[in-house]
Each structure stands twice: as structure tokens, then as C-alpha cells.
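The following block was generated as part of the benchmark described in Methods. Ligand: adenosine-5'-diphosphate.
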Amino acid sequence: MPEELKILDEKTDLPLLPLRGIVVFPTIIMNIDIGREISIAAVEEAMLHDHLIMLSAQKDPSIENPSPSQINKMGTVAQIRHVMKLPGGTMRIVVEGIQRASIESLNKKKAYFEASIIPYQPEIDLYDKQDDKVDAPVEEPDTPEKLNHEALMRAVVHQFEEWVKLRKKIPAEALISVVMVENSGHLCDMIASHVDLKAEDRQIILEILDPIKRLEKLYTILTRELQILNIEKKINNRVQKQIEKVQKDYYLREQMKAIRKELGEDTASESDNYRERLQDEDLPELVKKTIEKEINRLEKIPPASAETGVISTYIDWLFSLPWNKLDKERLDLARVEKTLNHDHCGLTKVKERILEYLAVRKLSHENKAPIICLVGPPGVGKTSLASSIAKATSRSFARASLGGIRDEAEIRGHRRTYVGALPGQIITALRRAKSRNPVFLLDEIDKMASDFRGDPTAAMLEVLDPEQNSTFTDHYIELPFDLSQVLWIVTANDLGAIPRPLRDRMEIVELPSYTAEEKFEIAKKHLIKKQLNYAGLTGVQLKFSSDALKKIIENYTRESGVRELERKISSICRKAAKQIVEEKQSSLKITAKNLADFLGRPLYTHTRAEDKPQIGVCTGMAWTSVGGDILPTEAIILKGKGHLILTGQLGKVMQESAQAGLSYIRSRYKELGLDPKFYEKNDIHIHLPEGAIPKDGPSAGITMATAMISALTGRKVRNDVAMTGEITLRGRVLPIGGLKEKTFAAYRENISTVILPKENERDLEDIDPKVKEHLIFIPVETMDEVLEHALVK
Ligand code: ADP
């Protein structure tokens, strides 16, 4: 083999070795394995002469027998350094690139191509590849071109270094040898052959003769390669991390299981149970995702930490809510009517209203119907009507009591960031009801209060608003829950106390107080049966006489509804049960005579009205949310200095009302026949009984004035008259509220005549016919008229 490289400087004919997928650059030494006949023939031909061969890449490496047009024009003249025969007729040759050359033409010679080539001068002195310092280079002045050239070279070297760092496949010496190169064209060739570029890119570099352009091209190619490498690295890292995490988790979980097993604990962890449950249960997608997230969190924290409990409670809540559970509603009005009648006597109008309401709901198919609101004193059957509706429509029954709620969190729940946070009443009741469309009773909506912790009214508005309640979000649950299918029923004792915006959305159905006769009916038909049942007794074992029942109603209870009555009956049943068991009696009958044995002494032996006309005692009528009552008002005159003493816990308005009455009396002393200085030597004391109960309002104005006048003049007040009305300084009588319940109380207490403000006359329409039948109503405009009817002639 010749040691020295032969450099061509004129057109020459050389055998061609077509390369597949590789490009050989000048100065680069390379192994090439060959097997095709055209290649072997070309090498053999070259070996017969001066070992020179033309290397040029095929345009398409897959072609076995390329035609001349499929060979790239630009190639490299190389010297064959070594030939080695391999088994199977193939050969390995070692070639060293010398110079670029372009093929002018190709001629088929026997088995190979002969290329007629034009060689280009090598870029460095091939006999001293370090391209160096034989003649120390003459210092040239820095021109912009020179600086540009230098910058480009550095940039390319830098890119190459980056590439080596990322690729880590190239020995350090290669890097050093590249960095040492000063000739830019040569530098490009070196880098292009080290970096594993695509064959096309290498060919492009080979074809560029101008060194600056070659640098620029290489720079772009390298930049792109680096980007790809970087992305690849990121992907690799990510995949690696994921694999590591999965493996680690798996390993830890297995270890945990092993530890549990060793400790003799249940091997299935809480989170495993949750996961299993998650598979089985039918939940909305969003809920599933949230649970999944929480389970993942649960797995990451130690089982003994406080957080575990918090997360498990939350997951339990999410599992237990009736997200998709709907009761199959039966809206058969006949059935509802039958059930309502079966469970309640009387209440005809109320039942009718409820049926109408349900009919409208059925027809409209929309949930935009107003919400039904049952208003009435306690114990008149509001709750039990609502539960009957649920029963009759085959829906579940949910209930939340709003009385005393002042914090919106009681409705909407507390955020989970609070210690001990839980959902609000709405969600809690739905969980208990296990259905998304129950009949939902909101009790005592009039007793909600608001304070600095937020307004519960606003939260209730959202709950009841059909536009908003399909995405009701409890602060604790933090996921929207659909309340739009719920049938809301609201109750209140006092219509006036329901916040206005809520009232506007409701259809008000008023339940009146019961008369004694009605109570008797209810007790006979329902309460006794119910309580016997609770006590495990039969109608044969315990009987109530009608007289006994009447006596319970009259002497043991004083209420608008039948709650107390039911309680008394229940107490009798329990005592009777005890007697029957202990004394082996087979049956008992409760009569008016033995009633005291069961209930003790009667609580209310006489009516609160006076039994004869008195001086200084006048009967007023009061009304509270628990119903109406009569209110005997006392006034006496004492020696003193003109003070007005008021006792019985009177509110401010009531005190002023008494003052106004007194001033009116003073201004009318002549007409009333009083001493003009009556107040200078006397004190007047007004007292309202049941002093422990606060009372307020202007409606006792005329009552207090009448009592004072009676005490001052010594004229008696009729004991069968009750009155209500506000008084002005000039003695006019102004209207008041709650007439219905007030007159009901008067009727219950055997009053015969009711004096009421003229302007309240129109309210008489609403008054119960039975009450109207028994009472005489006297509408008045002035205090004079009051006195005319109230004082004994
Ligand atoms: P509210 O909710 O109005 O305070 P409830 O519904 O709790 O009153 O009624 C108290 C008790 O009286 C219940 O046991 C109920 O069944 C019974 N009750 C009330 N009114 C009637 C009625 N008209 N017929 C039968 N039972 C009644």
C-alpha cells in the first residue's frame, strides 16, 4: 500500500464505489463493508492501479443496481488503505478521504462504473493535517468578514460541544481534535462526520464548497439536531420518572401490605375499599373524579394523621349522597286525596289547596311552580300534612328545621378548611332521605335570623330558586348538587315574619287554630289510635270516655293546635300500659272522674276571663306566633305623685301606648267626670299578668286606657267583653293585626263581645264561621264608643 496520499489536480478517470447511506469526507478514515458486485469490481480495479477510488452516495440507498442518474454528482476521492475479505464473499475496506470531486460522467466498465471526475483542491495540507504552524501565519488585520467568520466558527464549535454533552457517545479526544482545527471548511467536515446526521444532510455539507456557507448550513442543521435532542431528553426524563414513581409506589404498597399482614391487620386498606366502591357505584363523572383525587391524597399521607380522618369523612359524604337516586313519583291525585283524608280530619280547605297545587305541578311539568308554605300555630298539622304528601306521592321525606338559624353555614355547610366542618342542613337531610327528589319540609322559616356571619335568607333563596337550585353547591361538598326535583314545603307560624323575598316565591296556605270540637274529633279519630299504637295497647285494653276527652281539652291544655293534647294522651297511654302490665289488669277506661289519677290536678280550671264585672280590670286580646290568647289587664290608683307604673315586661311600644292613653284621659278629664288634678296626688299602676312573658305592640292601647278609666271613675268593666285596638292622643282607635287568632282565643274563653277597630272590619271575612256565630263584633272608631260598650251601664 502506498504510504503517501496522492492528490489529484486534474480531470481523471477512477472506478466508482456507490455508497449507501454514508458519506465520506476528506481526511476522514472509515471502514466500509461492501458486497455488491459493482462495488467489489470497482475496489478490485482500484487495487490494480494506485488504490484511488471515487466515493459517491446513491440518492436512494435502497436501490441495489443504481443507474448513473441515481448517483450524487459530488463525492470524495479516497485512497484504499486496507482490504479484508470476509466470509460469504463480502469485503471490508478501510478508506481515507482525500479531496472533494465532482463526477462529470459515468461509464459502465464490465461490472463497475468508471467515473470521469474533476477534483477540488483539499482544504488543508494533507501531509501535515494539523494545518499549522510551519509558516507562522502572517497577522492579518481584523476585518468585519474575518470577525464574522471567527464568530461562526466558534458558534459551530459550541453547538458541537453541546451536542457531545447531550449525546455522550463521542470520545473526548474527538472533541479535542475538532476544537484544535482552525480551517473552517475542514472543521465542518470533521463535525459533519462525527455527528450522526442524516445522509442527506451530510451530502448537503459535502456539496458546499464555500467554507462560510458550509459553516452556516452546518450551524442550522446542528441547531435543529440539538432541539430534537433536548426534546428527546425531556421525554426520556419524564418517562423515566413515571416508571420510577409507579415502581416505587408499587413497591411501597406491597411493603405496606406485608407490614399489615405481619401486624395481623386487615390487608385491604381503606383506600383499596374506596377504590372498589368507586368501581361499583353509579356516580356522576365529576363526583367520581373528585373521589379519585381524594383517594390518591389519602394514599400519600400516613394512616394515623389527622388529615386521614378528614379525607375519609369527605369521601364518605360523597359516596353517601343520592346523586343519581330518584324516587319513582306517583302523582295520582285521587290517591293523595285519600291519604290526606285518612291521616287528617277537617282541614277541608287546606287539603283542597294542596290538591290544586299538586294538580298544577303535574300539568305544568316544570318545577317553576311556587313553593307551598303552610302557615299556622304549632300543632295544627303542618308537619304531618307534609309527610302525608310524601307518603301519597311515593316520595321520601326530608326535613330541616330552620328555626333559630342565623348563620348561612348551617344551610350551606362550612368550608372544609374549618376544623370539624360538615355540610349544611339541606345536604344532610338529603343524605338521610337517600333520594334526590324527596318531599322536603323546611320548618319554621319565619324563625330564621341574620347576623354578621351571613344572611341565611340569601342561601334559602338560592335553595328554593328553580333557576339556581339545579347547581346548589354546599361549601363542604364543593360539588354542584341538583335540587331541582325536590318538592319543597315550607312551614311558618307567623306569615309576617317570613323575609319578604322568600314570601314572594311562596303560595301561602293558612291553617287555622282548632276549636274544642275539632280537637275532640282529632283526638278521637287519630291521636288516641296513634298513641295506643305507640304504647303497644289496643282499643280494647284502654278506652277514653267522651267526657274525659273533653276535660283534657278544656282543663289540661290551652293551645291552638293539638300537640299538648297528644302529649297528654300519650302520657295516659304510657301510665295505663304500666298499670296493665304490673297489675295484670286486662282493660282500663279513662273517665272524667279518674282522669286526675293519670294527669294530676287540672291545670286550667276556669277561663281566664273574669267571672263578673270588675273595676280596673279589662280583657284585652294578644296574638303571638303560637296563637291567640286573652289578656286581662289590671289598673289601680295609688297615693303618689303622678307616676305611671307599668309592670309585666311591657315593651317600649306598649309603654308608650299606655302613656298615650293616660295623656288622652288627662285631656278629657271633664267629659270623664274626673278631678282636673287627679294625677298630681296619685300614681297609676298597670299590670299585665304572666309577668315573665315579654309583651309588646300597640294593640293593647284601648284596653289599658279602659282599665285606667274604670279605676279612676270607679265604673265596672264588662267581663264578657274583650277588645283590641291602638289608641291615639285624641282618642281615635287605629287598626291592629292578628284578628283571626285573637278572636279565636276570645271564642275559646267564652267571651261574648269583641270590640275591634272599625278599619279591621274587613278582616272579619277570614274569621272562622264557628267563631263568627258565637261572637258579637263591635267595630269602633273612637275611645268614647269603646267606653260606651265596655263599661257597665
Ligand atoms: P305542626 O307541624 O303544625 O306544628 P304537627 O304536624 O306536628 O303540627 O301536628 C302535631 C300532631 O297533631 C301530629 O301528631 C299530627 O298528626 C296531629 N294532627 C294535627 N292536626 C291534625 C288533624 N287535622 N287530623 C289529625 N291529626 C292531626
